[in-house]
Backbone:
């Protein structure tokens, strides 16, 4: 049996295979209200029909000002929860598990989606004042404002409420977005965190907000449901965030209830060289897998079934996240099963006549 199609159990959640769809923003809440619609249903629904083990819904803001763009999804109110519920129900009907990536974009919020403009959305056009660990803007974006100590503490309950809402919507797992230069990464990295209060300075202090959030979410959702964390394993910059700090903070997160670490990289600053190429972030995930003793996911230019299988067989990575390859082909998992010689029980009944090998 191919490892890629072995089920995996994390806390009480049983996942039918090790192919996770990576969270991918759709920027498609056309009413700019954070409420998912038919696009999200069809987009996420087709990847469930495509055979994924688990689908991670896009970076979803815990508060309105945490959206990357005005078109991003949210989960701070009940209209949003109800709309997510319909999407989750369909994902479940296809046998996939559903996770949601909870996020706050911090100083990288309030920008245009690619096809609507460039850079920050001005206040008079529906943009907003962004907040961050400090008051230095992201290169090319509008000014940001440092959160007060009290505001940082208050954010913890916003994340916990979003987690509660995620449970109500029916999600099976929560991923905390602590990567790609968004708010939690802005706190973790010494490059963007120059604070002098208890949320800045030492590694312990820079990790405090994330640890408080994991603790609060675990208290809110109970013991059955998994918590994943997406980290950038490095800022690719000397004296920045790196893999050793990632490993240490992942260990602390595991102690307060996190279960799986999804290892990406970069995104905090511009002007660094990212060594992209097939599987370029896998070594980062392997290092976390070797050192933390918890399940780990690898992501980034993993496009072939045999490539994914080899990464899992090598030993320290437990699941594979597929991003853009699944945008090109929502049926990536079904095709991968065929390529690896796996007979799937969960080929959609409606598509039986299309099953490999083709009979007509
Ligand atoms: C359209 C698009 C939207 C994305 N949105 C998110 C997101 O919401 N959250 C996140 O953590 N990563 C996001 N990413 C990054 C992907 O999850 C993934 O890590 C990255 O594309 C590398 O994997 P790949 O080579 O398989 O695409 C996005 C990528 C794309 C292409």
Residues:
């Amino acid at each position: 049996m191919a490892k890629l199609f072995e089920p995996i159990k994390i806390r009480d959640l049983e996942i039918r295979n090790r192919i996770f769809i990576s969270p991918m923003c759709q920027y498609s809440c056309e009413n700019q209200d954070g409420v998912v619609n038919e696009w999200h249903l069809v987009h996420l629904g087709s990847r469930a029909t495509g055979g994924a083990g688990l689908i991670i819904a896009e970076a979803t803001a815990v508060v309105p000002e945490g959206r990357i763009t005005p078109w991003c999804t949210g989960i701070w109110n009940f209209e949003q929860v109800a709309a997510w519920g319909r999407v989750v129900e369909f994902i479940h009907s296809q046998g996939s598990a559903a996770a949601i990536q909870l996020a706050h974009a911090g100083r990288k919020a309030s920008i245009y989606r690619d096809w609507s403009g460039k850079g920050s959305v001005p206040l008079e056009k529906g943009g907003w004042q962004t907040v961050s660990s400090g008051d230095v803007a992201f290169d090319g974006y509008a000014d940001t404002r440092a959160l007060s100590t009290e505001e940082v503490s208050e954010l913890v309950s916003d994340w916990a409420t979003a987690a509660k809402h995620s449970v109500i919507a029916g999600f099976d797992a929560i991923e905390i977005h602590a990567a790609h230069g968004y708010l939690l990464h802005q706190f973790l990295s010494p490059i963007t965190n120059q604070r002098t209060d208890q949320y800045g300075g030492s590694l312990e202090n820079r990790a405090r907000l994330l640890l408080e959030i994991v603790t609060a979410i675990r208290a809110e959702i109970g013991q059955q449901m998994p918590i994943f964390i997406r980290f950038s394993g490095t800022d690719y910059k000397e004296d920045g965030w790196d893999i050793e700090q990632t490993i240490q903070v992942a260990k602390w997160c595991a102690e307060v209830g996190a279960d799986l670490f999804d290892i990406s990289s970069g995104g905090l600053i511009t002007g660094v060289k990212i060594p992209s190429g097939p599987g370029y972030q896998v070594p980062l995930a392997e290092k976390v897998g070797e050192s933390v003793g918890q399940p780990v996911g690898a992501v980034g230019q993993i496009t072939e079934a045999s490539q994914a299988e080899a990464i899992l067989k090598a030993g320290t990575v437990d699941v594979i996240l597929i991003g853009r390859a699944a945008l090109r082909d929502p049926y990536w998992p079904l095709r991968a099963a065929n390529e690896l010689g796996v007979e799937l029980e969960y080929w959609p009944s409606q598509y039986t006549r299309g099953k490999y090998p083709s009979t007509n």
Summary: The mean pLDDT is 97. The longest strand covers residues 54-61. The longest helix spans residues 149-169. The two ends are 27 Å apart (CA to CA).
